[in-house]
Amino acid sequence: MFPTPIERTSPTTQALYKASLPIAVILWLLPLLAVMLTSLRSIEDLNRGNFWGWPSEVQLVENYTAVFTSSPMGRFILNSVLITVPAVAGAVMLSCMAGFALAKFHFRGNLALFAIFIAGNFVPFQILMIPVRDLTINVIPVYDTIWALILFHVAFQTGFCTLFMRNFIRQLPDSLLEAARLDGMSELRIFWHVILPLVRPAIAALSVLVFTFIWNDYFWALVLVQSDDVRPVTAGLQSLRGMWLASWQLISAGSIIAAIPPVVMFFLMQRHFIAGLTLGGSKE
Amino acid sequence: MPQIAVVERSWWDRHQVALTPFILLAPACAMFAVFVVYPIGASLWLSLFDWDGINPRTWVGLGNYAELLDDPVFWTSLRNNVWWLVFFMLAPVLGLALALFLNQTVTGIRLVKSLFFFPFVISQVVVGLVFAWFFNAQFGLLNHLLAALGLPPVALLESETWATFAVIAAGLWPQTAYCMILYLTGLTAIDGSLIEAARIDGASGRKLLWHVILPQLRPATFIAVVVCVVGALRSFDLISIMTLGGPYNSSNVLAYYMYEQTFLAFRYGYGAAIATVLFLLMDVYIAFFLWRLLRQERR
């Protein structure tokens, strides 16, 4: 193990190391802690300029309730869920199919197709922006509905997901397929009954990862929707800033609320999340 | 009738192995073609026109690009993108430092690692708001801390000199967390006996890190650099939240300037030209990445 395991060092070093951990965490998260602290303050404190002193009273419930009662925050969160869940399901489904095809079948253009999916991942959003917006207005009339975001996210995330799935399925032994073929199973049945059960861990990892990608998207939420009824929480939060102006306690509470779902997802599915991040990543 | 059924089934039987991959690929390819591949071509084409988004387009050839050359905001944005690239290269270094610091097995370390990873999970909109509040010239915690140290307050986001760097600092926060995770996983994957053997040979500390650990971490480093380059060129969210490219465009970047020109100035063709420049910049890295990946694949 590198660096030298701390257990092998002197007791003083060990104690110092253990003491340094919480300090490091606090320093690292300091900007976030500042927002959390602000979200507990009363408006009186803020008006008096008491930003960083001891709060005169803790208004946790009041502030967080106010976010929901004085703004469409609840609606924004619901929209985010309605956009993210189908988009994740769609992208994962398409990429399981495409990944299997690219991993286990030899045909001309296989590698070229794979390269297009990878390259598509990295293109700047701005090169897609105008035509995609025009498409959703003129060709597939979904502009300013959740479908505009769902369709785009499915399409775009399919690139990354296919890269990931293809590499995962490629590691599965070919003998499994051959055995199934000898049993007279058709290719589509092999996909359904042999491959899909085996890629469950990859599906879990991918879903968690793509969930946070889509949930946190802000750019497309600006470009493809404009009314409060469909806005997801990222764009919603930004639009609320204008309304709340100097009500820093509400902006802070709103920020925390917007951050909670991906954070909960991360803590619940941490193992899958990191597996996803590094499997898609370390497969260079 | 049974005869036809037999014929049909056998046709499918004969061709299903060849047809299956195309059936499986069709939906993914269709979506990708419509929403990714076609728009790239359409944008490149549009960059040769003048268009306000409503009236008919007028052909201007390379006129938009010629105009870019004389546009000071374009050059500021490009320069800032270079700053983003340069400073984002700190993320792998800082991420490695954090990973080395946290790669221990004391109680509670898992929680500590998760807390360090936190910034990557939350939305850039929230990261932007968090740092806008942290840097706030009047009430921000940063100035409060500076005052406690007896230092004068700073107005980073209102400064033409410092705004870009303040936004980059905010961007480095989640980016470093990402690199840290890549390195932590990389460190766990290193064969322990290799390290012990090097230790027996008398290597330790920096020497061990430089000659044994870092070469083993090369795959992690490669990915870390790639995601940082992409992140630096994609920077949009933080600028839109923290500075809107200001003051006086001093913190603008190509991605945000493109958005501004298109939707605020209604210059779609010009916006497409800016996007094309950004796309060409990114292509260099895409080509490099693909080349490495496909070379690996052929082996």
Rg from Cα of chain B? 26 Å
Termini Cα gap of chain A: 23 Å
**Can you give the helix content of chain A as a percent range?**
over 70%
Structural class of chain B: mainly alpha
**Count of helical segments of chain A?**
15
Estimate the mean pLDDT confidence of chain A.
Answer: 88
Shape of chain B: flat
CATH T-level topology of chain B = MetI-like fold
Taken as a percent bin, the fraction of beta residues of chain B is under 5%
* Strand residue content of chain A: under 5%
What is the CATH superfamily of the largest domain in chain A? MetI-like
Oligomer: heterodimer
Number of domains of chain A: 2
CATH class of the largest domain in chain A: Mainly Alpha
- SSE topology string of chain B: HEEHHHHHHHHHHHHH
Low-confidence stretches of chain A: none
Q: Whole-Å distance between the termini of chain B?
A: 52 Å
Structural class of chain A: mainly alpha
Describe the protein in words.
The complex is a heterodimer of chains A (284) and B (299). Chain A is mainly α. Chain A folds into two domains: 6-68, no CATH class; 70-282, MetI-like fold (Orthogonal Bundle). In chain A, 76% of the residues lie in helices and 0% in strands. Chain A is built from 15 helices and no strands. The longest helix of chain A is centred in the N-terminal third of the chain and has 32 residues, at 73-104. The relative contact order of chain A is 0.13. The mean pLDDT of chain A is 88. Chain B has 299 residues and is an all-alpha fold. Chain B has a single domain (71-298), classed as Orthogonal Bundle (MetI-like fold). Chain B has 14 helices and two strands. Chain B has helices at 2-46, 63-69, 72-88, 90-102, 109-121, 124-135, 141-148, 163-189, 192-200, 205-216, 218-234, 237-242, 254-264, 268-298, and strands at 49-50, 58-59. Chain B has a two-stranded antiparallel ribbon. In chain B, α3 (72-88) packs parallel to α8, α11 packs antiparallel against α14 and α13 (254-264) packs antiparallel against α14. Chain B is flat. The chains are: A mainly alpha (284), B mainly alpha (299). The interface between A and B is large, with 96 and 107 residues.
